[in-house]
Write a structure and sequence with these properties.
- By secondary structure, the chain is an alpha/beta fold.
- It has two domains: 55 residues, 2,3-Dihydroxybiphenyl 1,2-Dioxygenase, domain 1; 63 residues, 2,3-Dihydroxybiphenyl 1,2-Dioxygenase, domain 1.
- Helix content is 19%, strand content 36%.
- The strands form two sheets. Strands 1-4-3-2 form a four-stranded mixed sheet, with helices on one face. The chain has a four-stranded mixed sheet with strand order 5-8-7-6, with helices on one face.
- A hairpin with a 5-residue loop joins strand 7 and strand 8.
- The longest helix is centred in the N-terminal third of the chain and has 12 residues.
- It is globular.
- The N and C termini lie far apart (34 Å).
């Protein structure tokens, strides 16, 4: 098998809100079509968003529909937290110690997809 490209795709009922959130968080831009948006970073496709009008927000950590989450490793958790929240992320689980050598915090994007900001 020769994989030419891979992209993570999220279902969402609100394409504009979801793709704008991730574009802002990743420092990219949105390429929009009627039922599909792509986030480009430095001209390369990074994430896709498919219109799913009946999408229901997953409930982290034990609720229905959680199927995937992203771990994003950052060099400054405090700054990354501020950026994520400013873009519209919701903090679901704070780390016990932001000064620990390694750790993570759990967030939800506007459609409820969980993701972690990790360090260490």
């Amino acid at each position: 098998m020769n994989i030419l490209r891979q992209i993570v795709v999220f279902d969402t009922a609100d394409l504009a809100k979801e793709s704008s959130f991730w574009a802002g968080l990743l420092g990219g831009t949105v390429e929009a079509e009627d039922d599909w948006h792509t986030v480009l970073v430095d001209g390369h496709s990074q994430m896709g968003f498919q219109l799913a009008p009946n999408h229901e927000r997953p409930e982290w950590p034990d609720g229905p529909q959680q199927q995937i989450h992203l771990d994003l490793y950052v060099d400054d958790i405090r700054s990354a937290h501020e950026d994520a929240v400013a873009q519209g992320a919701e903090l679901l689980k704070a780390a016990d110690d932001l000064d620990a050598t390694e750790g993570f915090q759990v967030y939800a994007d506007p459609s409820g997809h969980p993701f972690c900001l990790c360090w260490g």
